[in-house]
Amino acid sequence: MTRGKQKIEAQRRNAERNQKPKGSQLEARAVALKTSCPICKVQLANPKQLGDHYASKHPKEKPPSEA
C-alpha cells in the first residue's frame, strides 16, 4: 500500500491513463465513407466496394455507371 505523495502520484497517473480519447470518430467516418448505395443507403468507401455490394446484396439490379 502506498502513502502520501506516492498515493497522489499514482492516482494522477491512473487518471491520465483512464481518460477517454479526445475527438470523435464520427468526423473521420464521414470523411472516409464517400459513396452510398441508392437502394439501401448503406455508406461505402469507394465505387469498387459499391460494385461488390451490388453483386452480393442486389444481384438483380444493375450497378451505377461509376462502379
Automatic annotation (TrEMBL):
Region (Disordered): 1-25, 46-67
InterPro entries: MBS1/2-like (IPR045230), SERF-like_N (IPR007513), ZNF706/At2g23090_sf (IPR026939), Znf_C2H2_type (IPR013087)
Domain of life: Eukaryota
Subcellular location, record wording: Cytoplasm; Nucleus
Keyword terms of this UniProt record: Cytoplasm, Nucleus
Compositional bias ranges of the Basic and acidic residues kind: 1-19
Gene Ontology cellular-component terms listed: cytoplasm; nucleus
Residues of the C2H2-type domain: 37-58
PANTHER family referenced in this protein's UniProt entry, alphabetically: GEO09665P1-RELATED, ZINC FINGER PROTEIN 706
Protein name per the record: C2H2-type domain-containing protein
